[in-house]
Amino acid sequence: MITLYGFSFSPYVRKVRLVLAHKNIEYSQVMAPPSQDADFLQKSPLGKIPYLTDGDFSISDSSVIVQYLEKKYPQMPVLPQEPHSFARALWLDEYSDTKVNEIITGIFFERFGAPKFLGRDPDEAIIKSKEMQFPVIFNYLEQELKGKKFLVNECLTLADISLTSNFANFFGLGYTIDDSQWPNLARYTEKLMKIDFIKKIVDDEQEEMADF
Ligand SMILES: N[C@@H](CCC(=O)N[C@@H](CS)C(=O)NCC(=O)O)C(=O)O
After folding, report:
1. The GST N-terminal domain covers which part of the protein (predicted)?
2. How far, in Å, from the CA of 12 to the mean position of ligand 1?
C-alpha cells in the first residue's frame, strides 16, 4: 500500500498526487510538514516533503517519486519514451520546480506560510519583487507553447503536471494571466485547471487543509 507524506499545498506534494490520480493508483496521505526529526530524516534525508512509502520501500523528492511510479505503474504514462520528448518533459519539470516555484510558490509562502509557520506578516516587498518576475516565466512558457496543446508532444506529461501544480497556487492567490499578452499560456492553464482529475485534487485540497 502506498502512503504519501506531505501537506497538500506544497506544489511538490501536489505534483505526486496528480500523478497518482492520473495513473489511478490507490494511496493514503499523511499531512506531514517538513521535519528534521531523526525518524523523518530516515525516509527523507533532506528533511523535505514529499516522501512516499510503498510497503517497506521509501523514497523522497517529487521528481524521483514520479519516475519510480512511472516504472512500477506504467499505465497512463507521464514520461514519453522518445529521448528528446523524455528530456524535454524532465527539463520542464525542473523549470517548474525551480524558477516557477521560486516565484509563484514563493509568494504563496509569504501570504500563507509566513503568518502560519514563522509567526509574521507577509513581506510585501518580497511579494512585489516576485510579482515583477512573472513576465520572465510567462514569456518563456508562452514561446514553449506556441502551436501546441501541451508542453511536450500532444498529450499530458509530467511537464504539464508540474506546471499545473504551481499554477494552482497562482490562481489560488487570485492572480490571472493577461490573455492579450500571453494568449497561449492563458488558454493552456485555463484548460489544464479544468481537466477532471486536476480540478478534483485542487478542490479537495481546500477541505483537507482547512484544519491544518
Ligand atoms: N526537490 C524537492 C523539493 C521539495 C521541497 O522543497 N519541499 C518543501 C515544501 S514545499 C520543503 O519540504 N521545504 C522544507 C525545507 O526546505 O527544509 C522535491 O521535488 O520534492
Report:
1. 1-77
2. 7
